[in-house]
Amino acid sequence: MKKAIGYMLISVLGFALMNLTVKFLVRLPATELVFFRSLVSLILCVYFLRKRHIPLFGNQKKYLILRGIFGVTALTLFFYTLQELPLGSAITIQYLSPIFTAFFAIFMLGEKMYKVQWLFFAISFAGIAVIKGFDPNISLPLFFMGLGSAVFAGLAYNCVRKVKDTDHPLVVVFYFPLMAVPVMGIISIFNWTAPIGWEWGLLLLMGVLTQIAQVYMTKALQNAEANEITGLKYLGVIFALGFDFLIFDVTYRPMALMGIAMVLAGVIINIVFKSRKRKKALTAQADIS
Questions:
Q1: What is the rounded CA–CA span in Å between residue 18 and residue 87?
Q2: Most confident of 88-97, 100-109, 146-155, 204-213
Q3: Which end of the chain has fewer beta carbons closer than 10 Å to its terminal beta carbon, N or C?
Q4: How is 183-215 classified by DSSP, letter by letter?
């Protein structure tokens, strides 16, 4: 479990810095950003898979392809909201994904959900409602885009967990750009905006940070239960608020900050609860044996 937490923390930092690069690339369409990010990731994945003599296309191709499709959909929706909203608001909405991850894990992975966990999730959803009500930047379409991103991310995370015993983390990561590059490349042709100057460097940095974050997130998900570890992604909200305040001079209304706190509280309580339940189960199993 400690190893999974360490992996997830590295992933959170990588994604936070990647989100910051997206905010600086607001001139470029979201679909184009997904294309460039995925192109860099595809090149890196193929290089490291070949170097380690790991077969490219893995074993459970059905879930690997679904992981790619769900992930690309989630990222495209997220990038659009990231460009249109303050970092903190966009990331907080998208970070409902652990709730959907836990929900879909019931059906896809057979993971157990305790009744009290629904209360924790309700606190997080109530926090999102507060943020929506007190942040004038969040229109209804943007809100549902963020929510849709969280739903598809939850599906993608469960696909990652589904192949944890059969496929290498690099193979799992590889399927994201494998799906994204051709689809987003075709879409970008009809909505192309040529990068200029320093934007090329930021695009490259975005791709490298993505690769680091994706690999370590995959390792984390493959070393712990989905509804236990993904909640750590919420720490990214802290980075986002810091970037908003220090770099973009964004201020939040007190009620909006309270909403963010409610979201964090619901997830953190769930993490602590789930961790204690898991420890008790392991202790009981050890006593029996």
A1: 12
A2: 146-155
A3: C
A4: HHHHHHHTT-----THHHHHHHHHHHHHHHHHH
User: What CA–CA distance (Å, rounded) separates 239 from 14?
Assistant: 11
Count up the domains in the chain and report the number: 1
Which 8-state DSSP code applies to residue 248?
S
Buried b (16+ CB within 10 A) or exposed e, 149-187: bbbbbbbbbbbbbbbbeebbbbbbbbbbbbbbbebbbeb
Put simply, whether the predicted model's pTM sits higher than 0.85 gets the answer: no
DSSP letter for 96, please: T
Which pLDDT belongs to residue 159? 93
pLDDT for position 155? 94
45 to 53, 69, 142: CA distances (angstroms): 12, 17, 32
CA-CA distance, 55 to 67, in Å (whole number)? 18
**Could you report the per-residue pLDDT of 216-268, keeping only the tens digit for each?**
877 786 676 655 665 676 677 788 888 888 888 887 888 888 888 888 788 77
User: What mean pLDDT is predicted for residues 17-39?
Assistant: 90
The values of phi and psi at residue 180, to 5°, are: -75, -40
Give 119-135 as a 3 state SS string.
Answer: HHHHHHHHHHHHHHHHC
| Cα–Cα distance, 11 to 236 (Å, whole number) | 10
Range of the domain at 61: 2-288
State both tokens at 46: 């193929």
- 285 vs 238, more confident: 238
